[in-house]
Write a structure and sequence with these properties.
The radius of gyration is 49 Å and the shape is rod-shaped. The N and C termini lie far apart (183 Å). The chain contains 18 helices and 27 strands. The chain has three domains: 284 residues, no CATH class; 150 residues, Serine Threonine Protein Phosphatase 5, Tetratricopeptide repeat, CATH 1.25.40; 122 residues, Acid Proteases (Cathepsin D, subunit A, domain 1, Beta Barrel), CATH 2.40.70.10. 31% of the residues lie in helices and 23% in strands. The chain is of the alpha+beta class. A hairpin with a 6-residue loop joins strand 1 and strand 2. The longest helix is centred in the N-terminal third of the chain and has 24 residues.
Length: 636
């Protein structure tokens, strides 16, 4: 008789119909029968339980560990150091070219792949920002997420009309477009074409779950941290941080939920749009360039900086000046350091000084009417504009500029005001001294009175008033002015010289003082003849008589009064015959000698000039100080 068989529902093995437990796996063959554990199976269960417990414990320790986990980094290119700034290299000397930075930042390698906690590869490559005119502006590392997306700080991309991404020795891939809005500190940008890189996706940041930062510089994970939102930046939630973090990505459950950018951009930027496979970009790279750069002040500054060595310093200065006529397109936060006022203004100052050293003053004077000067308010630029204006147009024009457009700058200037005011005073002092040398005393007083309200306390200007009074031979006024105030040590020598001049002038009262070039044999004077004709003479103590040229006789209408007989006269050229005429008067500095005999002689090579001989000079006592250039005539 054949026995009836039944199959185990668990292992499908055949058992006798009356079996209670399976002969193969030991599972119950009837409902309601308890599970029977075979001999040895208890050991398996206990071991499995222990293994599971150890795995759970290890996971807890892993996520709460305070130690970073070193991960392997594949060598590729170079990476940005922590304190790097995105800017073109600018040389201190404007005479040498200033080149846009085309070199990586240091010798750390760009990461090609970094292992994440989920055994996924984090792809890091190099972004190159290129300007079609200047070439590479800058290069920096960036992470690819969700196959083809890159988070890029706005400041790093300014000025580039073409962007590329490259991993290792692979082909450079253009960056086509992305999500970015005006005022956003960063955007998310997509690679062009169909190529996608294997790596983690991005996911929406969960605020209540800790994140860990994976550094793209060292490949190390930070300890878990909780971030607090501080604001919204486009598709990102911004979180301010007490310290600057290294550049990297924030991870939750193996997915990228945020970015940090080190010194390039402070804070953490967390993703809000999830892993949307249909995510579309709204802006092209061209749109970004036009929105942030083209036609704005930044583009003029960039062109000026990038053309160093390719164009003259004058052309550079012109580009800077033109830039100040248009408004900036960027906020201060988005403006790259190399285009910021802190960088550009000192460079303009050096450029202006370089042009001044080349004596190309005309290019600096044009800044007097430019908004560049009003906005920079740089004391060195202001002083160079003043000096260039003086060189080209004279002292008066330079002072007019200071008291006109430059007055507002001087009023609000914090640094360099003392030096600027000193230059201002020196211009007035130099102007008055030049007028004294030219014996334009009346004009000198006008300039002094113009300067005095601005420099009431200036002892140097006050001494010039003493000199003006002395030039008018008004020793009384000069003495009164001199002793009105005290003078610093460096001016006491000038005060003593003026004191001596006042004393001399006192002694010369009621005397004729004739000044001439010290050491010269010629002593020129101007006299009035017959109270009607001003005439130039030379004092000649070796001549017995006064002489006048025939043209003077004609001008006075004395031809008919000349003597008929001629007199033999000894001259430097030998004996000559000359007629004589009587002049009714000769007046010198208010002193008049009447009925003076004069010989009519045209002096060789000195047409129109006469001589004051002894028949005039004998009316005075003579004190000749040839070395000092003074002749004093004391009436007898």
């Amino acid at each position: 008789m054949t026995e009836k068989l039944i199959r185990c529902s668990l292992c499908n093995s055949e058992n006798l119909d009356n079996s209670v437990y399976c002969c193969q796996c030991g599972s119950p063959m009837r409902k309601g029968i308890p599970l029977r554990v075979r001999k040895g199976q208890w050991i398996v269960v206990v071991v499995a339980t222990l293994i599971l417990s150890l795995m759970i414990t290890s996971s807890i320790l892993f996520f709460n560990s305070r130690q970073t986990i070193p991960l392997a980094i594949e060598q590729q290119s170079q990476i940005t150091p922590k304190n790097a700034q995105i800017k073109p290299k600018m040389l201190e000397q404007v005479s040498q070219p200033v080149k846009i930075d085309k070199t990586p930042f240091d010798d750390r390698p760009f990461t090609k792949e970094i292992q994440t906690t989920k055994n996924e590869k984090l792809v890091v490559g190099k972004v190159s920002i290129i300007n079609s005119t200047a070439g590479i502006i800058t290069e920096f590392p960036a992470v690819v997420v969700s196959g083809s997306w890159l988070a890029l700080p706005t400041r790093t991309c300014i000025g580039g009309d073409k962007w590329f991404f490259k991993v290792g020795n692979g082909q450079a891939i253009p960056i086509e477009g992305g999500l970015w809005g005006r005022g956003d500190a960063l955007g998310i940008w997509r690679l062009a074409g169909e190529k996608e890189f294997k790596g983690p996706d991005f996911a929406t940041w969960q605020q209540d779950i800790p994140v860990r930062l994976l550094s793209i510089k060292t490949g190390q994970l930070s300890k878990p941290m909780l971030l607090t939102p501080s604001g919204v930046q486009g598709a990102f939630i911004f979180s301010s941080l007490p310290t600057v973090l290294e550049a990297g990505v924030f991870l939750q459950d193996g997915k990228v939920v945020g970015w940090s950018f080190g010194d390039l951009l402070n804070g953490a930027y967390m993703w809000t749009l999830g892993n949307d496979t249909n995510l579309l970009f709204e802006n092209y790279v061209d749109d970004f360039y036009n929105e942030t750069f083209a036609g704005g002040r930044e583009e003029f500054f960039f062109n000026a900086l990038s053309r160093v060595g390719d164009s003259s310093p004058q052309k550079q200065l012109q580009l800077f000046a033109e830039g100040f006529w248009v408004q900036p397109k960027l906020t201060p936060q988005d403006t790259p350091l190399y285009l910021s006022p802190e960088t550009v203004y000192p460079y303009i100052s050096k450029l202006v000084k370089h042009i001044m050293d080349q004596k190309a003053y005309q290019y600096v004077t044009t800044l007097a009417d430019e908004p560049l000067l009003q906005e920079t308010r740089d004391p060195e630029v202001l002083m160079n504009v003043i000096l260039a204006t003086e060189k080209i147009y004279g002292t008066e024009r330079a002072i007019n500029f200071i008291e006109g457009p430059g007055a507002d700058i001087l009023r609000t200037m914090e640094e360099g005001k003392v030096e600027s005011m000193k230059l201002y005073l020196n211009l007035y002092v130099g102007w008055i001294k030049n007028l004294l040398d030219a014996e334009e005393i009346s004009r000198g007083w006008q300039v002094y009175n113009r300067a005095r309200p601005h420099f009431k306390e200036s002892p140097e200007l006050h001494l010039l008033a003493v000199e003006l009074a002395l030039a008018e031979r008004n020793w009384t006024e000069a003495e009164s002015l001199l002793y009105q105030r005290e003078y610093p040590v460096e001016l006491r020598e000038i005060k003593m010289l003026l004191t001596d001049r006042i004393s001399d002038l006192k002694g010369q009262e009621n005397k004729i003082v004739i000044r001439f070039q010290p050491g010269s044999r010629d002593i020129p004077v101007k006299v009035s003849v017959n109270n009607s004709l001003d005439h130039d003479f030379l004092v000649d103590t070796g001549a017995s008589f006064v002489t006048v040229p025939y043209s003077t006789v004609e001008a006075l209408g004395l031809e008919d009064k000349m003597s008929h007989h001629q007199q033999e006269v000894q001259t430097a050229g030998g004996l000559i015959q000359a007629k004589a005429v009587t002049l009714s008067s000769i007046e010198l500095q208010g002193w008049v000698v009447s009925d003076v005999k004069a010989l009519v002689i045209d002096l060789p090579n000195r047409p129109g000039l006469g001589l004051l001989g002894l028949n005039f000079l004998n009316s005075f006592g003579l004190d000749l100080q040839a070395e000092e250039g003074i002749l004093i005539l004391e009436p007898k």
